[in-house]
Amino acid sequence: MGEYSVLIGGKAGEGINTAGLSIAALFSRLGYRTYMYFDYPSLIRGGHNFAIIRASEKAIGAHRTPVDVLLAFDQNSIDNHRQRVHSGTTVIYDASQAVQAEGYGLPLDTIVKEEKAPPITGNSAMLGALARVAGIGREVLDDVLRTTVPAKHLEANLRVAGRGYDAVESVFTVEPLDAPALPVLTGNEAAGLGLVYGGLDTYVAYPMTPSSSLLHFLANRAEDLAVRVIHPENEIGVILMALGLAYAGEKTAVGTSGGGFCLMTEGLSLAGMSEIPVTIVMGQRPGPSTGMPTYTAQGDLHFVLNAGQGEFPRLVVAPGDLEEAYTWSATALMLSWRYQVPAIVLTDKTLAEGACSFDIGAVAELPDREPVLWDGAGEYRRYARTESGVSPLAFPGREGAVVKATSYAHDEVGFTTEESGEVIELQEMRFRKGESLRAELATYPAVKAYGARDAGTTIVCWGSEKWACIEAAERFGARVVQPIVLAPFPARQWKEAMIGAGRVACVENNATGQLARLLRQQGFDPGRPVLKYDGRPFAVDELETRLLEVFA
Amino acid sequence: MTPKQPAGKVAGSLVSPAQNTWCPGCGNFSIQHMMKSAIAELSEEEGIPLENFVLLGGIGCHGKLVDYLNINSFYGIHGRSIPAATGMRLANPDLKVICHVGDGDIYAEGLDHLIFAAKRNSDITVIVHDNRVYGLTTGQYTPTSPTGFKGRSTPGGITEHPINPLEVMLAAGATHIARGYTRKVQHLKDLFKEAIVHRGFSFVDVLQICATYFNLTDYYNEHAYEVQEGEVDTGRFESALSKIREWDYDREAPIPLGTFYSVEKPIYEEKFRALTAGRPERRALVRKALEEWR
Ligand SMILES: Cc1ncc(C[n+]2csc(CCOP(=O)(O)OP(=O)(O)O)c2C)c(N)n1
Ligand code: SF4
Q1: Which residues lie with the beta carbon below 6 Å from any ligand 2 atom?
Q2: pLDDT tens figures, A282-298
Q3: Is the Cβ pair A226, B59 closer than 8 Å?
Q4: Which domains does chain A have, with CATH numbers?
Q5: What GO annotations for molecular function exist for this entry (chain B) (predicted)?
Q6: Which single residue of A62, A138, A455, B210 could bond A467 by disulfide (Cβ 3.0 to 4.6 Å)?
Q7: Does the distance separating the beta carbons of B83 and A407 come in below 8 Å?
């Protein structure tokens, strides 16, 4: 068996997310690639949280329904997941909480009390039991605890983990692989590192799930990464502060979700008119309005494509996994500066908060790009007309330059004008810039394709559905085509990727088929829709079943 | 800081070629001219290079000011100058960042930003062109219009009371609070210079005459007076508060002009400086973070 699935479930506040990451770390130590899906309602204590951790010999990025081991802290964690349990599933439960269960009952209360350890260490008992069941040695278990538990609590956790380990027996054996132990990151962490790699000076954000963890990550690592992290009064303040920073020469990114992005659209339009670069990491969750704050969706594609008053070019990219989140966040930042356009990195809760093995070696780095700077000759004109549409930048404090940025229609210097000829030139200049950006993107992997050209069946998808589709495609011998850049739309690359596509299914986490709508707008046939809009990403097996209906 | 620009550049050269579109008699003219002189004099006297000044405009008649001066500027959107100003000051501590805002602009749409900038003592200067009416949208009431004011959106007269913005600013934590009047130009210029030089959040509410929609010249001429030395202890909250409450923008009362409060406190932007000092090679830091990932 080259693949394992573990579910850990309990109440909010019991540290399910952290425990899930430790489980992923356990498999990583043995050279496995891991993926974690974390499901939790919007409450702080109680309710039902669970994480599914999958480990495989090959790269993965999605979960499956059945699990090999179920770790249950309460009765809910057993009752809610009956469909995942099969004859080969090992169930380990907290005997002090779950009463109707079969498998190994661990008296967590007693263990924790006897070991004089804090209740949260119950997680370690479960981790210990999992290690034993999976035939993973004590040294590996202890090692993982050493790297995941703060030193202060390490001893207690090691003791409790040992009790869990001794309470069960080995059921199967996870063979160590001859592969490096990769770090397990969330999508937000990968995006954050990518932004810094791309030149980020300052990150500004107001908390909103699923982008808050990007704010937390960068704030925690601000010193290590030499970036400023700022949390102002609201999202309007966020984007305006970012524009102020960028006007003064600092590379800045902001992060938010739908509701916050609504507030930012005013500033987004200002960025469009004043040509001040800003990168927005926009993590989607189900709307409208507050929707389901801690769940996932791909429902804001057309919102980000069209947000703002007036017409201006923008870059919109939708990475599908960690490697893409990393490299395209860096690139979005660099290109937003190069072309002085707003850039949006469109993620969702699945990608942003999901965790995965990150292989920096597999990152296909995209080109380095620098902003076009003023050479200091003659009088400085912030909006100087150029062939490429890009006016050279100077920043306040530069001797000999008066830098005038503005939200009004303006002339080359930046003075307000409403004169017909001037405003036409201004608008055309902005669109030349957009075309220059499009031309540059022609050399980037803006559309990705997986599988054989002659497959005769093609699955089209975007963003975090990428890996569920890649795995499901194997079952059908299908090809997968995924646009990463959504604006300016890479029509030529799309056309090329879809030659001989055959039967096409378009997989999306929304109710109306938003990518399909974009494809139709571009003059392409999107095929048959396969939609899911319950706030959860497709499990691979679930997607296979749905695709069977389309391809049958 | 060494001046890169030769000192003594005449104020006149700061006037831009942009065509002025304010109504004749508008109070904005004196604010523009006094700002121009304040900048020219500060550049000369304090050695602040002209290229280190940045003016921000809100949206309204007042905002046009930034077009009319040959100074770095950011002509933003309604009510949003302040966070942008904070961003600039974060990026470059040498910049003297001055927001020109309107009373509708900043006390209605922008009030949250104003209060928060005061709260965090952001090192920026806010000059409010308080004509107590919406000029550019042709005469609606603002948060400082007096009770009974008949605007185009409130023909029956408003029943609300105006806010006293100075009181709001004092409560919010502003470290420098002053009031000027567009007919007292020398005084106005001194208030501007003081506010710009102040280290921390400085705020000047300028009683500005709107010649077209709300001309309070006679009223202000009759009631306004300059606060004399020793009349208010600008280092004491209570003293400032009682002076600030002498007139509440509503009832008939003497209208004090001058600086009411001025204290030193740590500056918001300063605490972020160490983080990015020396422009470290961030790519190496990213690689290191990944290598040591846990
Ligand atoms: C978001 C937004 N809402 C409304 C407007 C329309 N608007 C333009 S100026 C203005 C009021 C300006 O009043 P004030 O700030 O007092 O400035 P004044 O014109 O009196 O100088 C309004 C409401 C706008 N530009 N943007
Ligand atoms: S409407 Fe009032 S504020 Fe606006 S320009 Fe005319 S006088 Fe000045």
Answers
A1: B 22-23, 26, 28, 61, 131, 135, 210-213
A2: 999 999 999 999 999 99
A3: no
A4: 3-166 (3.40.920.10), 184-362 (3.40.50.970), 372-444 (no CATH), 447-551 (3.40.50.920)
A5: iron-sulfur cluster binding; metal ion binding; oxidoreductase activity, acting on the aldehyde or oxo group of donors, iron-sulfur protein as acceptor
A6: A62
A7: no
